[in-house]
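Retro notes, item 3 of 5
We never archived the inputs for the protoporphyrin IX containing FE complex last cycle. Fixing that now. Sequence and ligand:
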Amino acid sequence: MEELTPKDLFLQSVGRCVANELFLPEFYSRFVGASEEIQARFRFTDFDQQYLMLRRSLELCAGATSGDPESMREINERALTHDRDHLNIKPEFYDVWLETIIDTARIHDSQWDEAVETAWQRILGHVVKHMLRKY
Ligand code: HEM
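Structure as it came back at the time:
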């Protein structure tokens, strides 16, 4: 049997996490609870929409990391909406984002192990670095 790539491991893990309807609300509740500044950014947010967009974004991150041009284009658009002239998502927020999403996934994925964690770190770390370069 061929070994699963980090992308496969990540996408399968995302699938297991989002199969549990508590995963996305719990992530946002922890993330927004992490700082008043983060909370303020989401004061007008429709969270049902936000859950859908995050789920899609996670898949996008996997595509962008493996070089898919359409995913790259969309990540570049997100980098623009999140930069200092738009949503002004400060670099330190991304550290909290990454840590919180991985902590939440660890709890919700029953097959979590070191390889899965490395895959999450690698794929989301890659996209976060890209967003930060364009901040
Ligand atoms: C790689 C990381 C991230 C991805 C892929 C991502 C993706 C997205 C997407 C797809 C949207 C909706 C469309 C848009 O406005 O661009 C969005 C909106 C938003 N994101 Fe992010 N995001 C990321 C990190 C963050 C972080 C760290 C924060 C920190 C506070 C943040 C705050 C927001 C806010 C405030 C909105 C607007 C919500 C609203 O409509 O009220 N995002 N994000």
